[in-house]
Each structure stands twice: as structure tokens, then as C-alpha cells.
């Protein structure tokens, strides 16, 4: 899973091309390989799109994939609808752009993710460029599932501390001081373009579950890696997969913060003893 937005950002830093509503356009089927927008809710798109791309194979499909990592962070539930309304605008009798208000809610949630990686919100997605609500445009959905709001969410944070060969007491104190503790096997590899990517292999195991949910935790930690790329680059070494003990807390605003990371090597008997003692340990 690719994790850098460099190509996409380079192509989006130039001002948005003036789109002539009177120009000749054509409708094409959204191809299956265009994964970012394949399940957006409609099957045909208009070319040229609102970014001025007219060649499906050379421009539209490859550049759409540049945005997949941002969408995988889950930065906003309507980020896909917003981006695809520009990349693959729905083919109707009239042009439907995203409303300014939709741009604003997506930007406010997703710009911090880009900022976490040292990138500004692209100039081409300046929300002032898009029409106001009273015009015909794609507006934000009024209702979002309230249950999803209550789940912990990953966010940009200062990198957690990493402690090699910790003492048993250190590990147990970390379990006591934080909301949750899990073990996870993290792997670092490279894409065909040479960019690093990070994955969680196998299942995440709970030591202390706290507010985390079993079905959501692996996805949550994967999103954390995607958002905190610079931290991931320091924490996860290249090569073979490494088992880690991760401890952290859920902040008052609902965001998850990792606090301590213990690489768990076979020789680290203290970590093994601490995890066994934890079941009966009193903080």
C-alpha cells in the first residue's frame, strides 16, 4: 500500500485549469482498474474531467491512484466523493462540481493529514474555486453514522518513544499508565516505484483492550501508520517483519495516540514475563 502523495501533490500544486463548460466532452465507463472511484455510486464519468485531464489511460487512471493513500487514512467519510467529483465527474446532462461547503469539510479533516507529512493542501483544491450551495453542486451529506463518530480515530502526533530491551517493571508500568496495549507484527517494504510502505501482518493481539474494538483495531493501527509516515519510518525497520508491543491512550477528543513502542525480540524475556504477569498484576 503506497504511502507518499508526492506525485499527486506535484500535479496539483499548479492552479486548477479553467474548465470551459461549453467545450466538447464525452462519457466513458469508469474502468475497474480505477479503484479509487469504481465504487463511488455511478458507472460513467465525463472527460475531460474538472482537473483538465482528458486521456483516461495516461492521465486519469494513474493520477487517481495517487490519492488512494489519503483515502485509506479515513481522513473524512466524504473525501472519496469530493475527489472523485473532480477526477471522475458524473456524466449527466449538466456539469456537477463539488460545492464549496463539501470542499471545506473535507479540507478541514484531510489537510492535517497532509500537513503531518509536510505537505500543504493543494492550491488546485482551494475551496474558493468551487460554487456556493445555492448553485447546482455536490453538497455534503447532512447525516453521518453516529456510531462511527464514537470509535477511536488515528491522528497526527509526536512520535512515540521506542525502548529496546526494557525491564519487566517498565513494561508493566506502561500497561498500567495507558488505556490499551497490543502486540502487532509490522513490516516495511518498498513499492515498485521505490517508496516505503508499511503493513500490519497477521492479527493484532490484545494485552489490555481498553476502549479498542477487536474488529476495528488492526485497521485503526494501519491508518495510524499511513497518517504518521515520519514516525513509521523511524519505528519500523526495513527487512523482516518485527513483533512490537504498542501502548497508548484515547484522548478526550476521541483520537488515538501511541505512547510507547517496545520491539519484542526473542531474547527479550522481560517482555514475555511482563505479558504473563499482567493477567494478575495490580497497578
UniProtKB/TrEMBL annotation:
Family in the record: Belongs to the secreted frizzled-related protein (sFRP) family.
Report the principal subcellular site. Answer: secreted
The name under which this protein is listed is: Uncharacterized protein
| GO CC annotations, alphabetized | extracellular space
Domain annotation FZ: ranges:
22-140
Give the location in the cell: Secreted
Q: Where is the NTR domain?
A: 156-283
Cross-referenced CDD domains, in alphabetical order?
NTR_Sfrp1_like (cd03580)
SS bond partners: 103-127
Q: Which GO terms describe its biological process?
A: canonical Wnt signaling pathway; cell differentiation; non-canonical Wnt signaling pathway
Q: What InterPro entries is this protein classified in? A: Frizzled/SFRP, Frizzled_dom, Frizzled_dom_sf, Netrin_domain, TIMP-like_OB-fold
Amino acid at each position: 500500500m503506497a504511502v507518499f502523495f508526492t506525485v499527486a501533490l506535484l500535479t496539483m500544486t499548479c492552479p486548477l485549469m479553467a474548465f470551459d463548460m461549453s467545450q466538447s466532452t464525452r462519457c466513458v465507463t469508469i474502468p475497474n482498474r480505477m479503484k479509487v472511484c469504481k465504487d463511488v455510486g455511478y458507472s460513467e464519468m465525463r472527460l475531460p474531467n474538472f482537473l483538465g485531464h482528458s486521456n483516461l489511460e495516461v492521465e486519469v487512471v494513474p493520477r487517481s491512484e495517487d490519492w488512494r493513500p489519503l483515502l485509506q487514512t479515513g481522513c473524512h467519510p466524504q473525501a472519496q466523493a469530493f475527489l472523485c467529483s473532480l477526477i471522475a465527474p458524473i456524466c449527466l446532462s449538466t456539469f456537477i462540481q463539488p460545492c464549496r461547503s463539501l470542499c471545506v469539510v473535507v479540507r478541514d479533516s484531510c489537510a492535517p493529514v497532509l500537513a503531518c507529512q509536510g505537505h500543504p493542501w493543494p492550491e488546485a483544491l482551494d475551496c474558493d474555486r468551487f460554487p456556493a450551495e445555492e448553485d447546482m453542486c455536490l453538497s455534503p451529506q447532512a447525516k453521518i453514522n453516529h456510531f462511527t463518530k464514537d470509535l477511536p480515530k488515528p491522528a497526527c502526533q509526536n512520535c512515540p518513544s521506542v525502548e529496546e530491551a526494557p525491564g519487566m517493571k517498565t513494561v508493566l508500568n506502561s500497561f498500567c499508565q495507558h488505556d490499551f496495549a497490543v502486540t502487532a507484527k509490522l513490516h516495511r517494504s518498498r513499492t515498485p516505484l521505490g517508496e516505503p510502505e508499511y503493513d500490519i501482518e497477521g492479527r493484532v493481539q490484545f494485552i489490555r483492550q481498553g476502549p479498542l474494538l477487536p474488529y476495528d483495531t488492526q485497521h485503526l493501527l494501519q491508518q495510524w501508520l499511513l497518517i504518521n509516515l515520519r514516525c513509521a519510518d523511524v519505528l519500523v525497520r526495513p527487512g523482516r517483519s518485527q513483533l512490537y508491543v504498542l501502548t497508548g491512550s484515547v484522548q478526550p477528543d476521541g483520537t488515538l495516540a501511541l505512547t510507547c513502542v517496545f520491539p519484542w525480540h526473542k531474547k527479550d524475556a522481560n517482555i514475555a514475563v511482563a505479558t504473563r504477569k499482567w493477567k494478575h498484576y495490580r497497578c
